[in-house]
Amino acid sequence: MMIRINLLPVRQGKKREMGRQYLVVAVGLVLIALIGNWFWYNQLATERDRNQARIDDTRKRISELEKVIGEVNNINKRRKEVEDKLAVLEKLRRGRSGPVRMLDALSTATPKKVFVTEFEEKSSSVKLIGKASSHDDVADFMRGLSAMVWTPKGMGRVVERKRDSPTVRVELLTTEGAMEDFTLAEVAPFFSSIDLKKAESKDDKVTHQVTFEIGMLANYTL
């Protein structure tokens, strides 16, 4: 009598075991891929943040440099204005077109944004032609001219004149800015009959300028 053995359950068990092994391997591979992708993405994110920090730092430095450049440009512009004004005054002094005291008074009365380009003086009659940044600067120039006075202690500039007061406060130009009060009888105007002959505005793509002409009398012989 031959004995028969049923091997089907054994084969099915091996197949199930192999299937579980395949499943474990597949899950392991997926996990490894996910972990690898996470590390790769984390590395990219770190590099991105590092690059963004470099970009932000570069932009900050550029902004600081732009501020420094702007300040340097402003300094150069102010220096150019002072140099131009000094050049005009030096030209007037070299030309001897008027007494030195009158040129000193004119220099003191001229605001920063006003430039005298032409100066004529005949028998105490003075004509000024120049440029200013605005009409207000021209008005400041005329007020500065009218503030120049003679005192018993030399040339000065009126800094305070109170209504109905018998005295005026004057900054003396001969003693480096000393302030003194003088009676009205002791003070005489250096420039008188100050008249704005012409004031024309001119605009271009860069600046706004006002050209002007002023006529007046200079009392430099007092």
What does this structure look like?
With 222 residues, the protein is of the alpha+beta class. It has two domains: 11-95; 99-218, no CATH class. The chain has helices at 8-95, 100-109, 135-147, and strands at 114-122, 125-132, 148-151, 154-160, 167-172, 178-183, 188-189, 191-203, 208-218. It has a five-stranded antiparallel β-sheet. Strands 1-2-9-8 form a four-stranded antiparallel β-sheet. Strand 4 (154-160) and strand 5 form a beta hairpin. The termini are far apart. The model has no long low-confidence stretch (mean pLDDT 82).
Summarize it:
This protein is of the alpha+beta class.
- Secondary structure: helix percent: 40-55%
Q: Which spans of ≥5 residues are poorly predicted at pLDDT below 50?
A: none
Q: State the domain count.
A: 2
Which structural class fits the helix and strand makeup?
alpha+beta
Number of strands: 9
Number of helical segments with 4 or more residues: 3
Shape: rod-shaped
Mean pLDDT across the residues is: 82
Q: What is the H-and-E element order?
A: HHEEHEEEEEEE
Largest sheet: 5 strands, antiparallel
For the termini, the CA-CA separation is 159 Å
- How large is the share of residues in beta strands? 25-35%
- Identify the strand order in the major beta sheet: 6-5-4-3-7
Radius of gyration: 44 Å
Keywords:
alpha+beta, four-stranded antiparallel sheet, 3 helices, single chain, 50% helix, 222 residues
List the helices and strands and how they pair.
Layout: H1 8-95, H2 100-109, E1 114-122, E2 125-132, H3 135-147, E3 148-151, E4 154-160, E5 167-172, E6 178-183, E7 188-189, E8 191-203, E9 208-218
Antiparallel strand pairs: 1-2, 2-9, 3-4, 3-7, 4-5, 5-6, 8-9
Helix pairs in contact: 2-3
